[in-house]
Amino acid sequence: MKQIPVIFWTGTGNTQMMADAVAEAINAAGAEAVVKNISEITADEAAGYDALALGCPAMGAEVLEECEFEPFFTELEGKLAGKKVAIFGSYGWGGSYMQDWEARVKDAGATLVADGVLALGAPDDEAMAKLTEAGKLLAE
Ligand SMILES: Cc1cc2nc3c(=O)[nH]c(=O)nc-3n(C[C@H](O)[C@H](O)[C@H](O)COP(=O)(O)O)c2cc1C
Questions:
Q1: Any coiled-coil ranges, and where (predicted)?
Q2: Which of 8, 69, 116, 127 would bridge with 65, disulfide CB 3.0–4.6 Å?
Q3: Enclosing domain of residue 85
Q4: Which residues of the chain have pLDDT under 70?
């Protein structure tokens, strides 16, 4: 069965809820989601998969979380070419970091299966629907 990691950073749980929704959709589509907190996987290990879901909230001033997630993504960026990728994250008042992140994924030569999914705080029904669609597209 095709395994797809869902790798996330979270401070207060919102992005983890989003990761769980993506994982559920991946499993429902017949692939196997492997949900990993960022501390549980290296960029090298992540690069071993053909399709990945990555989740990180807006932190700092509209950037990825800088201590763990940004170093992980910086390392992974050079190994993303040809892969299918979905990205998602929660935010509080802005959310523009997502456009920068989308551009980085595309510039790395990966296929972004859907627009980056944002949720204001905890994911609402609309965000959940987008996460479900992204998970399904990753598993195809
Ligand atoms: C240190 C810090 C910096 C943040 N910076 C931003 C920001 O630049 N833009 C924004 O929209 N939200 C920002 N937020 C809000 C978080 O993105 C928001 O609370 C989000 O729901 C956290 O997701 P999590 O529950 O997965 O940790 C920040 C929160 C913290 C704690």
A1: none
A2: 69
A3: 3-139
A4: none
